Amino acid sequence: MKTSHDTALIVTDMQADFCPGGALAVSGGDEVVAPINALMQRYDNIVLTQDWHPAGHSSFASSHPGSQPFSSVEMPYGPQTLWPDHCVQGSAGATFHKDLAWTKAQLVIRKGFRKPIDSYSAFFENDRRTPTGLAGYLRERSIGKLVLTGLATDFCVAYSALDGARLGFEVSVVMDACRAIDLNSSLDAAKQQMRAAGVALTESAALT
Ligand code: VGL
Ligand code: ZN
Fold this sequence. Notes:
The protein is α/β, with parallel strands linked by helices and 208 residues long. It has helices at residues 33-42, 134-140, 153-166, 186-196, 204-207; strands at 7-12, 45-51, 72-75, 78-81, 107-111, 145-151, 170-179, 200-202.
């Protein structure tokens, strides 16, 4: 399975801002660089995602006077968690982790670049309707299986997994190659939702 042409390894948001020292640091985020680098050696098809927000993005608490990071607001498309400013286009925090061996990647999907709408999933923005184009890319290349890694398990990785399953892809998440934000038990909720959607939660060792 691992080197087959119908499988893509998706490396989610492995950016400086999501790693320790970054603006929206995920605990242990840098610990997954090594397992992801090892996985990237073994897959032919690699897609990176890159959170890529304009300054003043609507998902930033700083764009909502009086609101604190990690609180929630109602957007036209539903509830939206507010974050510290992070992954601003062209900033150092938006670059990939310095040790990520990303050169083999064939596609970088940027997301979150529309100011009024956030985008967690690699497939759709948070209205769950506006596509990124990834599904078309994968289908044109006859890729039907996805192996997901990166940050954060309970946000971008889970949203991508759920959308991928909904679109008919066979999806697995490599849990030891992911780390979570875990806001109000969001990790448990995400795991339950992924299992219910038929997403396989696995470990790197099980892929060897
Ligand atoms: C993410 C919050 C805000 C993620 C991105 O990559 O999971 N989380 N933007
Ligand atoms: Zn973001």
